[in-house]
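Tokens in:
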């Protein structure tokens, strides 16, 4: 690994203050439309699902309402399955994979589960294609009480308001080339630390919970996704993004300690997906389908355990 501190904002070794964060925010530009690309697809599901607004981002409440899609005929005797996408708004297949699952597959699982889908947790991040929110806060490190991220706080409140335990949670993400070229460098600059260059894995992988790894669940997800796209190999040291693999295409993180989305509940079965959209081996649509395969692979596995 090489150390690199090249980032156009801030002073090397010093954390950003309000001035640097404002400078960063001024560089963010709207590049696509949440309303046109996401909300229209959510609205198209209203004849088959219960769609409700669970909040709005204060940056622009009318432009950034937050929606949850729930299966109809809620049955408290059934376990609940949660699917989240767009916690990092720039991770496109997380959003559109969640919507594709809702449109094409979710109803098939309502015999066994109450289905809850939050397809775009960070709509401002979706529009500017960024990992952070306007305060330079990463929502996916902010799932804790008194969160500094509106995106995380709204999602946690929605899940709490369900009034039930979550049995399975699939959180849909991507690892992109821009993680290395932009976002990790920005994080190091923001935090006043060194940036160590890392290899971006070429392929799909999952992140399990160090405290509750559920290896058979992870394997089921990997086996389902490999029918759609390739699985990421480890680097020469047997790691993926700096963490040792526990089996093909699987690493573990301490989810609650890191305040990650997949640690927001005490679900028995949890996995975080990581699609690689920059590979020349896949199309955007295949990335979306891979996310659907991850969700169905997880749910099919859990059904066998019920």
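Residues out:
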């Amino acid at each position: 690994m090489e150390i690199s501190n090249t980032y156009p904002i801030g002073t090397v070794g010093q954390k950003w203050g309000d001035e640097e964060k404002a400078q960063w925010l001024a560089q963010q530009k709207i590049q696509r439309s949440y309303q046109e690309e996401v909300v229209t697809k959510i609205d198209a599901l209203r004849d088959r699902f219960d769609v409700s607004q669970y909040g709005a981002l204060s940056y622009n409440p009318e432009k950034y309402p937050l929606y949850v899609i729930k299966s109809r005929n809620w049955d408290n005797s059934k376990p609940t399955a949660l699917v989240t996408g767009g916690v990092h708004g720039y991770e496109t297949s997380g959003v559109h994979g969640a919507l594709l699952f809702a449109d094409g597959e979710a109803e098939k699982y309502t015999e066994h589960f109450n289905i809850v889908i939050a397809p775009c947790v960070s709509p401002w991040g979706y529009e500017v294609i960024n990992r952070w929110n306007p305060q330079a806060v990463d929502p996916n490190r902010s799932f804790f009480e008194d969160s500094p991220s509106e995106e995380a706080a709204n999602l946690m409140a929605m899940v709490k308001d369900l009034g039930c335990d979550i049995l399975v949670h699939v959180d849909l993400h991507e690892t992109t080339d821009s993680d290395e070229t932009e976002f990790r460098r920005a994080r190091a600059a923001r935090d006043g630390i060194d940036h160590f260059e890392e290899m971006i894995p070429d392929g799909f992988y999952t992140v399990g919970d160090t405290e509750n790894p559920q290896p058979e669940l992870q394997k089921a997800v990997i086996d389902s996704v490999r029918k759609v796209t390739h699985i990421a190999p480890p680097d020469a040291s047997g790691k993926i993004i700096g963490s040792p693999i526990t089996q093909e295409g699987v690493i573990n993180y301490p989810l609650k300690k890191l305040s990650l989305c997949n640690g927001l509940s005490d679900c028995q079965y949890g996995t975080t997906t990581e699609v690689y959209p920059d590979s020349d081996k896949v199309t955007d649509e295949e990335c979306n389908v891979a996310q659907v395969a991850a969700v169905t692979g997880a749910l099919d596995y859990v059904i066998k355990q019920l």
